[in-house]
Structure formats: structure tokens, C-alpha cells
Automatic annotation (TrEMBL):
TM region(s), chain numbering: 12-31, 43-62, 71-87, 93-113, 134-154, 160-177, 204-225, 237-255, 296-316, 328-349, 361-379
Protein name according to UniProt: MFS transporter
PROSITE patterns according to UniProt: MFS (PS50850)
Keywords: Cell inner membrane, Cell membrane, Membrane, Transmembrane, Transmembrane helix, Transport
A Pfam family annotated for this UniProt entry: MFS_1_like
SUPFAM superfamilies xrefs: MFS general substrate transporter (SSF103473)
Domain of life: Bacteria
Gene3D superfamilies in alphabetical order: MFS general substrate transporter like domains (1.20.1250.20)
Domain Major facilitator superfamily (MFS) profile: 200-387
InterPro entries: MFS_assoc_dom (IPR024989), MFS_dom (IPR020846), MFS_trans_sf (IPR036259)
Keyword Nucleus: no
Cellular location(s): Cell inner membrane
Membrane topology classification: Multi-pass membrane protein
Length: 387
């Protein structure tokens, strides 16, 4: 039990992302099978980031003030899968939209809170955050393929029950977690405005938004695209997602070393160009073998790009503004990019098809890569001044 306590965040991340693997990769396909258009699916996927922009600061304030990180995690770990059953009712778009809002309220604080607890735990036990977070990728990769095969035999409708069971396990593991040292406070709008006055940091965020809008188009609609190819869809999604998740592991481990040696600018550009290549491949409706091989680019397009972006945002700003910079980077990469990708991507699919959507995404990624190459200020540690 003492050993479990020492490595509790590792175990938590493994099962949390394993639970996500039983549900997240298959949801868009489920919604398409329920009769929704790509644009409607895009709207549903946009709801989460939009709600998160409002509720995450509220959750953070409550936890900062009352020290209730564990209690919030426990509540959210049960409420999120319980609300997800709303998607299984076949109640139509209005009910699905209400479900998406309710899920976002309880799901959005889980990763920031668990990260805060894991960081505090790592400092206490002389571990590293990356070592514990890596087990999340392992859990995701290990489960997603077998679960896809299972759904192909018993039916994808069972994913809501399986997700609930897995999150009950997460709830139990949360009991073993230590109380964190507090979550990051939400940045004030005045701090955000001051940081955005710096041209270099503004350009960094704009280029991140370009690339992330392209890659999020891929993420949001990939299972819908796989569904359009026919065959055993659940099994295909499982194998494709497993390969992409496994490809992340070495790049999460080596991203800091690569950035130190080659600089953030080159690593961010490499991630952008790799994403453009990946979108181009998918846009030509490749055979399953080539599609599977292209999934191995995920390690560069996500793990390397995201890790370099986090460190770059941290180094581009002075002490005292680190949290503000990370908040902005997270808002741009996840919330704003998903809002753009889900709505514009869904519209493009419905009006022009998957090929045009993915080629548009490739152009965005390529443009971002060129921008990073041209941004000479993004070296290994250039810092934005307060002036």
C-alpha cells in the first residue's frame, strides 16, 4: 500500500487515460451513426472548450480558496461518465448539446487539478512530472486497440457503461492521492493584456493557433473519417489510435533534450511540417497500411510540438508571468483551436468533403511552420521583457 501511495499519480494517470481511451476516440463516430452532420458534431465539440473558458477559473478559485482538489476530482470522476449517458439516449441534437455543456462543467477541471497534485507529489518524492504523465499515454495506448476490437463484437453502444466502470476505478485511486499544493490561479485580464503587448509573444501564439487549428481538425473528425471508409470501424479506430499514442512516448521523454540542442523554433517548425504532411496523406484517402504508418507522426505533431510549446511559452516571459503565459498557451492550443477546427472543419466536410478539409488543415500547418522558421527570436531561451 505504501508503494501504491508513492506512485499514486502514475497509477492515476494510467487509469484516467485508459478510461478516456474507452470513450473519446469513438464518440464522434457514435454521433455520426446517431444521424448528426459533421457540422453538428463540430458544434458539440466546440461546446467543451467554450464552457471551459468560463468554468475552469471558477473551479480553480474554489480549490485555491478551500483546498478541495481531491474532493472536486472525486465528484468530477463520477459525474462526467454519468452525464455522458445523455449521448446514448438518441434524444437528438438539443439533448446532445445540453449533455456536452454538463460534461464540460465537470470534465474541464480534471486534468489541471490532477496535474497540480502530480507536480506537488513529484516535488515531495523527488520524482518528475513527466515520468508520471507518461503512464497516461501508456494506459491510453494499451487499452484503445483491445477496446476497439471488443466494441466491434459487442457493439459501440456499450462504451458508456465501460467508461463509467473505468472512471469508478479512477475515483477509487483518487482516494490514495495526496492533497496538492494548490492549482495555478487564473490569469487576470490585465496581466493577459500586458503580456500580449509584446510582439514576439503575440506572434508565437498566432503561429501556435494556425498549427493547432489544423491538427485539431484532424483530432476532432478523425473517427468520423475512419467511419466513412467502411469496414470494421471500431477495430480500425482502436488500432490507429494505439499507434499514435505509442508514438508519443519517446518524444515526450526527449522533447526537452531536442529543444535544448536545436532550439524551440526548429522543433515547433518540425512539428508543424510533420502535421502538414500527415494531413496531406489523409486527404488522398490512403489505404489502411499507409494510414496506419502516418499515425506514427503523432509523436512529432503532438508530443514534440506541445512539449516544445510549453517550454517556449515559459521561457518567453519573465518571472511572475509564467502562469499567465501557460494559461494563454493552453487557451490557444486547446480551447480556441478546437473552437475553430470543430466549426470550420465540420462546415468544410459537409460542403466540400474530407479531402478539402484535410488539405485546408495542411495549409494552416505549413503556414505555421514557415512562420516559426522566420521567427528568429525563438531560440533556446529568449525572454520577453516586461516593458
Amino acid at each position: 500500500m505504501n508503494r501504491l501511495h508513492t506512485y499514486a499519480p502514475h497509477v492515476y494517470y494510467f487509469f484516467f487515460f485508459a478510461a478516456a481511451a474507452s470513450y473519446a476516440p469513438f464518440l464522434a463516430f457514435w454521433l455520426r451513426e446517431a444521424g448528426l452532420t459533421s457540422q453538428q458534431i463540430g458544434i458539440l465539440y466546440a461546446i467543451g472548450p467554450l464552457v471551459a473558458l468560463v468554468v475552469q477559473p471558477i473551479w480553480g478559485l474554489l480549490c485555491d480558496k478551500h483546498g478541495i482538489e481531491k474532493a472536486v476530482l472525486m465528484i468530477c470522476s463520477l459525474m462526467t461518465p454519468a452525464i455522458a449517458f445523455g449521448y446514448s439516449t438518441g434524444g437528438g441534437f438539443a439533448l446532445y448539446a445540453a449533455t456536452a455543456v454538463a460534461i464540460a462543467i465537470f470534465n474541464s477541471p480534471m486534468i489541471p487539478l490532477s496535474d497540480a497534485i502530480a507536480v506537488a507529489h513529484a516535488q515531495k518524492y523527488r520524482q518528475t512530472y513527466g515520468a508520471s504523465r507518461m503512464w497516461g499515454s501508456i494506459g491510453y495506448a494499451v487499452l484503445v486497440s483491445p477496446i476497439g476490437i471488443m466494441y466491434s463484437h459487442i457493439g459501440i453502444r456499450h462504451m458508456f457503461v465501460f467508461y463509467m466502470v473505468m472512471m469508478v476505478v479512477v475515483f477509487a485511486i483518487t482516494l490514495v492521492l495526496e492533497k496538492g499544493g494548490g492549482v495555478r490561479k487564473a490569469a487576470s485580464w490585465s496581466d493577459i493584456g500586458k503580456l500580449l503587448q509584446n510582439k514576439e509573444f503575440r506572434m508565437f501564439l498566432l503561429l501556435v493557433l494556425l498549427v493547432a487549428s489544423g491538427t485539431q481538425c484532424f483530432s476532432v473528425f478523425f473517427s468520423v473519417y475512419v467511419g466513412s471508409t467502411g469496414g470494421n470501424v471500431s477495430e480500425k479506430i482502436g488500432w490507429l489510435t494505439a499507434v499514435s499514442a505509442l508514438s508519443e512516448l519517446p518524444f515526450f521523454i526527449l522533447a526537452a533534450r531536442f529543444s535544448e540542442r536545436f532550439g524551440y523554433r526548429r522543433m515547433l517548425a518540425l512539428g508543424a511540417f510533420a502535421a502538414a504532411l500527415r494531413m496531406c496523406i489523409v486527404s488522398f484517402d490512403p489505404p489502411m497500411g499507409l494510414l496506419l504508418a502516418s499515425q506514427m507522426l503523432q509523436g512529432i505533431t503532438f508530443a514534440l510540438f506541445y512539449a516544445a510549446g510549453v517550454q517556449c511559452a515559459n521561457d518567453l516571459c519573465p518571472e511572475g508571468w509564467k502562469t499567465t503565459a501557460q494559461t494563454l498557451f493552453s487557451m490557444v492550443y486547446t480551447s480556441l483551436a478546437v473552437l475553430i477546427a470543430s466549426n470550420v472543419g465540420g462546415w468544410l466536410i459537409d460542403h466540400a468533403g474530407f479531402s478539402i478539409m484535410y488539405r485546408t488543415a495542411a495549409v494552416l500547418c505549413f503556414a505555421g511552420g514557415v512562420g516559426f522558421i522566420a521567427m528568429r527570436g525563438l531560440g533556446r531561451g529568449g525572454t520577453v521583457s516586461r516593458s
